[in-house]
Amino acid sequence: MSLGDGTTEPARSRWRSLIPRRRRESAAGGRPRRSPLTIALGTFAIAVALVLVAGSLTVYLTFRADWDGISRINVLGDLGTKRPPVDPNAINLLLIGSDSRAGANKKFGATVQGQRSDTVMVVHIAPGAHQVDVLSFPRDSVVPILQCVPEAGAPGQVAAPAGDVEQINSSFAFGGPGCLWKTIEQTTGIHLNDFIELTFTGFEHVINDIGGVNVCLPVTVNNSESDLHLAAGKHHVYGREALAFWRARYIGEGSDLQRIQRDQFLMASVLQGIRNSGLLGSPTKLYKVISDVARNRFITTDTGLTPGGLLSIAESLHGVPAKSFHFIEVPTVPYPGDPTAWVQWEEPQTTKLFAAIAHDTRLPKSTHKKKTASGGAPVLASVSPADVHVQVLNGTTIAGLATSTSARLSRLGFSVAGQPSDAANADYTTSVIEYPSASTLAAARTLHALVKNSALQLDPAVPAGTVVLVLGSTFSGLKKSAASGSPSPSSSTGSENLVSQYGGINGNVGICNDSSVFAGPDGS
Length: 524
Prior knowledge:
alpha/beta; Alpha-Beta Plaits; six-stranded mixed beta sheet; 24 strands; disordered N terminus
């Protein structure tokens, strides 16, 4: 890839010096970079659109004057002519969160150079169906390295041979918004209409302008890294604290995947707050939200997005109830080439998901089911036994225990991976279910529901997509059924089905029902 000075680097390593790897830095004693919060973009997109939904022509014309001062980027040089077909029945927006420290953002770390798309979302607006789907793409997702021209200070990049990959946030770092747009279109088959990019400071202003937002914590958090200090319970916070909340990484599992789930609850809270505050009935307040970020250049858009186009988006959102906003994380599994830091999209789920969004068709049938605990708090989605790939190891001196248990699991519908064998030692007391990453925690929970006296344990050394059951001396057999983990496929259609399948949430969710997204590696 060209670095802009006539030199080149190998495709796989050229960006490593510019984009720190969080897990490796942590292991070396370095300080991990905290990503900006994903909610900023969803907040902005909803607020901007709603400004025009309830506003008058006067508000629209006044807004247009500010709109003319917004930074714009021409992305046509990247997109070319071979693009996915346009869906005439839907609008797809690319929302980007940039961690650039330029301008007002320098207060978040002036020594951090360049920009990364730590937040990547596609908002699918289906007016006829009166629903909105928000797909969050983990920033560590691997994607092919495509040819991208320089734009807006980004040096561009040259196409790499098939098989060479980069993180999706590198597409933005090296090629700018147009490269990220092109990458998503080419890998998902979803035609994107426009993009909107928002900064750290822009997020703070949006939260302040809409009157703050509610957050709910099941435990007290004192996080010096992000300067977040909140007691357990519900709080109404404003820009600075809201930003600190979303920059706090070391909560629960400490993973970006789980943080996306927390982001979804905040997006739902913002949506509920806008609808319940009477903001839509006040053109003056509505105008303040958009004019603030527009005048201060906290946002960037493509040159094709006009005030008229934004009005069309707003009209499409008008009348969509909160329960019909659906927030979904694109499912992933660890990337074999770097399983501790990178992820890849899980198949065949994502292919079906992207096709359904691209063609605005019925969404895939559910194979996962979201459960509710007796206290009303949702837990992480469990999966069908057929989707749980488990290897059984004997951690005791009881002969044949792993073999008989493997046979029993197979009869219950589980996918037994590898031959049953002995564990490294035979002194296990409690049975242990080891899983490699947050993306397989749901599978581990399904197995956990059947194994008496067992504990969950995160172990990155476990092969991707597999869980390992190590039987202990207190193991007394499997429960008769996996009632909590073997749901029958849903016959429902629409985005509610997608939320159920991948553990997402609807816009009307109770924000204090978020205990599971703060849970640690052992599920507690």
